[in-house]
């Protein structure tokens, strides 16, 4: 079942199919969470927990793969995928740690890695710009050098808006996870290696929001961080430093 779900999440599929696969994966994870709550300590609950973790790993890996190329980067899939994950994180009978950083897991979380990449990417608007240009040229057959001024302006403004919404959603979703963990009094593992998908990587990614990133994509300049991102970053650091197992480590 998981292999079939993964095949629908891949970047080769259409955005509606990928978005539906993300929603289906979360639905399966919620069923597992309910089983774990109703039958704690049983072999079935253990199997459900393992399946839940693997499902979210695959959902996160699919999103990471898609965000690397303009041809596969989709605003709809980004927003709908993060929204579906948030449904799980807000579910009263689900434990967010089961999906993102369950105890005893050595590997980093692909979900946390993806959210970290999105919230810290100060050049995300350039990636969306390239994706919109690719979609326009594929649809109309017009080369980007031949775009009229109005179309270029529309693409520029739309890419900035999409980047702002995506980064804000990533920040707020991580904040939901951290707040629920804080309220539950759960211990958070800290990795000094800062491997992708770990709390250490998240901490340093959040701190990077306060300084302008070095440009890596043409044009070679990066727009200033919007005020709302600075506020999100400050609140994320505030909550991170109150979590058990975190306050002693980052410094």
UniProtKB/TrEMBL annotation:
It comes from the Eukaryota. This is Uncharacterized protein. It comes from Strombidinopsis acuminata.
């Amino acid at each position: 079942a998981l292999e079939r779900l993964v095949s629908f999440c891949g970047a080769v599929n259409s955005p509606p199919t990928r978005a539906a696969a993300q929603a289906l994966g979360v639905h399966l994870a919620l069923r597992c969470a309910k089983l774990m709550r109703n039958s704690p300590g049983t072999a079935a609950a253990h199997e459900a927990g393992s399946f839940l973790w693997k499902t979210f790993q695959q959902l996160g890996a699919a999103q990471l793969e898609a965000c690397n190329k303009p041809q596969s980067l989709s605003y709809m899939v980004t927003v709908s995928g993060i929204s579906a994950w948030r449904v799980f994180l807000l579910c009263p009978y689900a434990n967010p740690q089961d999906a993102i950083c369950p105890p005893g897991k050595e590997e980093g979380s692909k979900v946390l890695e993806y959210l970290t990449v999105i919230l810290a990417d100060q050049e995300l608007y350039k990636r969306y710009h390239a994706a919109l240009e690719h979609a326009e040229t594929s649809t109309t057959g017009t080369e980007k050098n031949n775009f009229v001024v109005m179309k270029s302006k529309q693409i520029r403004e739309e890419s900035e808006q999409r980047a702002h919404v995506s980064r804000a959603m990533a920040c707020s979703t991580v904040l939901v996870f951290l707040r629920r963990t804080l309220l539950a009094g759960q211990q958070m593992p800290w990795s000094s290696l800062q491997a992708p998908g770990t709390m250490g990587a998240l901490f340093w990614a959040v701190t990077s929001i306060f300084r302008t990133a070095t440009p890596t994509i043409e044009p070679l300049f990066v727009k200033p961080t919007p005020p709302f991102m600075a506020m999100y970053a400050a609140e994320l650091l505030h909550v991170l430093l109150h979590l058990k197992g975190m306050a002693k480590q980052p410094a």
